[in-house]
Specification:
281 residues, mainly beta, 2 domains, 6-stranded parallel β-barrel, 1 helix, disordered N terminus
């Protein structure tokens, strides 16, 4: 591994099996070490087969979700479930009306400000419900779009890590960017503290393979993990995800998939016997 300060991991740590390899843990390009994960940084660091170059300097702040953070699922064109799912937190859909929230067997409150469902520990809101719900949802959707733009605009610490395949890696806090799709075929660990922030900028679709998990370690928390996805996000059967998904198109949770985080989609969200839990504040 190359560093811009000799004898110290001043700008980057090399994580393997969750531990820092130190200033002598990786071979540089001059020493014949290959960049097997395809990632580049400001220092053009390289990694071996079981290591990933990750940033530790210049910490980034959390993305401001504003009122979009009031919802565990927020979508513009629809929210659907194949029962029985278990959702903890509020749902919102706008500008689509409540008829585009399907599979939840909704019961309208007497005020018609919200609905309830046996699958939801929380409330369900739609654009055609009574005031103040329509205005609140319009604001939340705008805030969701602003959060997407904010996340996309963060300066990346690492680009094209793993050439779009980060399976098996342990990643420290920072901003990671891919110009195309991102695949997570095996478990990925995010290692950091409760105040650390991760931002993942994905230029196309995000795919989490079946039974694969995003794992948080060292005190890392889901509310500080942001996945800005320019395409669609697909979480495979029985997979588990952590963090806030900000998707420009759709989010799909396949049968039995779960997430601790938020599903914020600029088109539709579809879940299937899934567990969706809002992150701790």
């Amino acid at each position: 591994m190359k560093s811009n300060r000799s004898g110290a991991c001043a700008c980057f740590l090399l994580f393997s099996a969750g531990a820092c390899s130190g200033s002598s843990g990786g071979a540089s390009a001059a020493d014949g070490g290959g960049d097997d994960h395809g990632g580049t940084t400001a220092d053009d660091a390289s990694a071996s087969d079981d290591q990933a170059v990750v940033p530790v300097g210049n910490p980034t702040a959390a993305i401001n979700l504003a009122t979009a953070g009031n919802y565990v699922i927020l979508a513009k064109t629809g929210i659907s479930t194949v029962p029985t799912s278990a959702v903890t937190g509020d749902l919102g859909v706008s500008p689509a009306p409540g008829s585009y929230v399907t599979g939840f067997a909704l019961t309208a409150d007497a005020t018609n400000v919200f609905s309830t469902s046996s699958q939801v520990t929380g409330k369900v809101y739609a654009s055609d419900y009574a005031v103040p719900t329509p205005a609140n949802l319009t604001t939340a959707v705008l805030d969701m779009q602003l959060a997407f733009t904010e996340a996309a605009g963060r300066a990346p610490s690492v680009t094209e890590l793993g050439a779009g395949n980060i399976g098996g890696m342990t990643l420290a806090p920072g901003v990671y960017k891919w110009g195309t799709a991102l695949l997570v075929p095996t478990d990925v660990t995010l290692a950091g503290s409760a105040t650390d922030v991760w931002v993942f900028q994905v230029g196309a679709n995000l795919t989490l393979s079946s039974a694969v998990k995003i794992v948080l370690s060292g005190g890392a928390v889901a509310k500080n993990v942001f996945w800005q996805v320019a395409g669609a996000a697909d979480l495979g059967t029985t997979s588990h995800f952590e963090g806030v998904l900000l998707c420009q198109t759709s989010v799909t949770l396949e049968t039995g998939a779960s997430i601790t985080g938020r599903l914020l989609a600029q088109t539709a969200v579809s879940i299937d016997g899934s567990a969706v839990v809002a992150p701790a504040p």
